[in-house]
Amino acid sequence: MSHQQGYQQTAPGQPEQPPFGQPGYGPPTQTFPPRPTKTKKQSNVLGLIALITAALGFIFACIPGALIIGWILLPIAFVLGIVSLFLKDKVKWTGVTALIVSIVGTIVGFTVFFAVVGTSIDNALGSGDTKVATPSGDAGTNDQAAAKEDPAAKAGTRENPSPIGSVVESDDWRVVINSVTLAATDAVVAANQFNEAPAKGSEYILVNYSATYIGDDPDGQMPAFVSVEYVTANGTTVNGLDKLVTAPKPINTTSTLYKDGTATGNMAIEVPTATAGQGVLAVRPGMLADKVFVAVK
Known about the structure:
Layout: H1 3-8, H2 45-61, H3 67-84, H4 93-124, E1 131-133, E2 167-169, E3 173-181, H5 185-191, E4 202-213, E5 226-231, E6 237-238, E7 262-272, E8 280-285, E9 292-295
Antiparallel strand pairs: 1-2, 2-3, 3-4, 4-7, 5-6, 5-8, 8-9
């Protein structure tokens, strides 16, 4: 037997193997698992509930008398929004939106809260240094004249309001109500495309006033420290923040004024139509000054 034949022999006790090139020595056959099909994500009911709760919380957080409801709903919406993000095969956008709305609503809620607290402190800490001078000539020219002291107990009360054009002055601010335009709804609505019509039974009025800084702060102050509100015939206070609209030629209350600087412009307020002319304006010339009431006609 040749050497090659002896090499091809199988050792005793081992199964005989086919030579190379015969069947059984080809590449192994591999079977791949089927590709998973993409399933359409289902609606996220929990995320939708979180979004609705966040929206309601945001609305209540903007209402001073209902802040507590907003503070209850917003954390609930935040937690539900987080939980909804971990639900498998559910859409995520409702949960994400709920988180954003709840966070923004919380910030707005704190802003409204501090504004309410600030107003309450102002009411409690009125400095009592407000002076009033009635107009001696044209109502629009008295903002440059110093006011003569006239105790608020005699003039400038709600029962005996000062006339339009009176100079209302504190240590820091001089305020003059130049004019009041009743039934100004058409002008206000036309001033901005986003301005909404007043509620049924109400109308917009335009209050044109001037605020002059007469204090000594070298950094100046903003006219936002001056407040002008409308008090209805039944004693309810209304201001321009109750319904946000842009007045024609609005007054700029956010730019800093330095000594003798003046800002003049309009503010729109929604008031009851039936008693619009029976209300009065509550003017506070500075954060700590006492209020003075001015007639609207």
